[in-house]
Amino acid sequence: MPEIPVSSLDPRVQKQIENSQIALQRGNLDYVLDVTTQVLKSAPGCLPVRRLQRVAQLRQLGTKNKLFAKAFGSVTQAGFLFGGGKKDPSKALETAEKMLASDPTSVPALKLLAEAAAGLDMPDTVAFAWEAVHELNPGDREALLNFGEACLVAKRPKDALRAADELLKTRPQDGDALALMRKAAIAQTTDKGNWEDKGSFRDKLKDEAQSTMLEQASKVVTSDEMTQKLIDEALERLKAQPDNLNHYRSVVEGYKKLNKLEDALLYVQKARALPSGQADTSLAKQEADLKTAILEKRIKDLEAQVAANPDNAELTATLAKTKSDFAETQLAEAKQYVERYPNDYAARYTLGNLYLELGDYQNAIANFQQAQKNPKVRVSAITGMGRALKARKMFDLAVAQFQLAKSELPQMDELKKDVIYELATCYESMGKKDEAIIEYKIIYSDDIGFRDVADKINAFYTS
Fold it and tell me: 463 is in which domain, residue-wise?
């Protein structure tokens, strides 16, 4: 079931879509939803129409009975939560569309849409679904990573690079994100010229113009005003169900989108005060993350003020004190969290990094050892342990860790190059120049511009 542009539809249908765009601007949402639903029945792969439908659904969200929407969603998704979309993607697509018609903010419905679209060979629709999940939950790493991977399949390397960059801003050593960035960079190079090869020039311009208009409309819908409306709805639901953690989460996510971090923190703390919230590890982590984000924002603001007033001793002192408080808060929050949830090995990796930055290598090593039990952070934890041992000048032990990390990284991405570089510098510190140059050559063969590897190789051959 291929994806098709608007220009390939019947001219009468194209006219209906144009009228729907006008109706959207005038607020006639029922007409938009009626037209787009009918078009998607016969042309489910027409993504611009699906985008238009979602804009209308989101605008109409405030008039829907959300309790009914949730009840409908819980019933209709039941048959597809465990791979049903793969077995019968056409049926799954129909189910996902019904769920989204009732609640366009349903993450399970969007995930089902992505699964169904993948089964129907509609890669752009897969990317659309995961991007929608990411917009609803900006902190969902899996959604953003899946969006990036879907963009690669859809031959949209620029969007994949954007997703990888966003992931690396919060987790610079994320192996999956680094791999995504590398694949996207390669795809961007090899896919040059494809734009001209697909369809007629006039058709492409027409579809691009329509897609741009719909994208702009989507931005209007997901603006601060819409976000505030969603927050207000969640607050109303909280009044009726004050013990429902999901309502608190909706409020928190809304305030995070508006960058009102203090308000978001307030409602996380209210949720954690509930009996059901006290044992919720995700809320505990969210509270710690928000406190960190608030302090980071204060530091950035102070840094800007100091840059503008470099002679202001009071501002400089305040910045230094805030940075010190930030480091202490991060460490205290991480320690408290690990003490409460000792088997959260990803959290131990975070704590290990904090100890490493503060120069407490003994505690860093202890936490990196435990963190290796989590497959997702295992290699990064091994690498961190190697760095801590290297800082203590235990070079032979550090070499063993870097060799282990190197062996567990299958492809030559940025993380693997970093590990090999650390291994080579350890050999240098031990006086093993031959072993060091062997490792530098591995990097040089793949990436001549990595750090100072070219200088080291040139110096070796010159000598």
Answer: 373-463
